[in-house]
Amino acid sequence: MIIRRHSENYNFFGDTETGLTLRWSRSLSENPEYAPWPELADISISNHCSKGCEFCYRDSTPNQSFMSVKQYEFVLDSLHSNQWGNVFQVALGGGEPLEHPDFETIIQKTVQRGIVVNFTTNGINLDKARAEFLKGKIGALALSVHSLADLQSEKIKLLKEAGVRTNLHFVLDNQSLDEATGILAGSFNQELQNIDGLIFLTYKPKGRASAKRCLTMDERLSQFVASVDNNKCIARIGFDACFVPVLMNSTDVNVDYIDSCECGFFSVYIDEALNVKPCSFANNDHFSYSLNEFSFQTIWDQKYSLYRSEIKENRCVNTCKNKSNCRGKCSYYDALSFCYQESPG
What we know:
The chain is α/β, with parallel strands linked by helices. The chain contains 8 helices and 15 strands. The chain has a single domain, classed as TIM Barrel. Helices cover 22% and strands 19% of the residues. Helix 1 (69-78) packs parallel to helix 2 (103-112). It is globular, with a radius of gyration of 20 Å.
């Protein structure tokens, strides 16, 4: 299915079969400021998880806090615009999505609407039957790990045999940084041979995640960044938005292939209690609005206009080569402002 959205300042093309998306403004060389309707919705269908990872930013526990199928359908209904249609894709998270008792129904409900569905999992509950169920239904599955020692090769093989695109979400902090540098050097290509893509996720000090593990712009991180341009990793690599300012400042990555933070501009987060926030990592409720109180259109068009105005004020005094494309720093975590400098005055 091909999705097209066109307005004076925003154009979008999306192919639900391949996952290819294109976005431009008045011309192909100009970026739109924001989307009139989100392209991606990050949805937590639960905050239930039995694994208990010490770096869990949501502090998930075996608490039985699940979004019901009825609530999920309400969310999808809310994300449908009479003018723009459905949201192009959703990213299901948690908690652990595979521990949701209605996980397969939720996948089916999403596919029936022509929405691309992806999800992140710790992989513990993956088996052959689940892999076969996912075949042809999802865009990609992401396995979340803090170390490649956590990789479950037998699970990855099951997914590969079922034809399920599998990515790796590697949590990047000061404990995993040296291994991450080794990944870029190609030292772990054998372990990554069945992985389609590897995304480095910047560690956020939220939930059970302690601030003492946050990255700092030291010699080790500088070495990692210096390895990006000529990396030898067998898998395609990418980074979350929190790391984009560093990429723009210190690498030769083509800015046409990376975006500053899209939260509240092109994407949105909805938690299992139906609260809408710009970002799943938000550490406050300043721009949190309930779908039980406001329509999504009101939240996106009106409530988030102020948020966008605040985010666009890049007060960084650095004069790096990609300053015009950068939003400066994460609005929620000063600890993630690796290259940001603000005038004392």
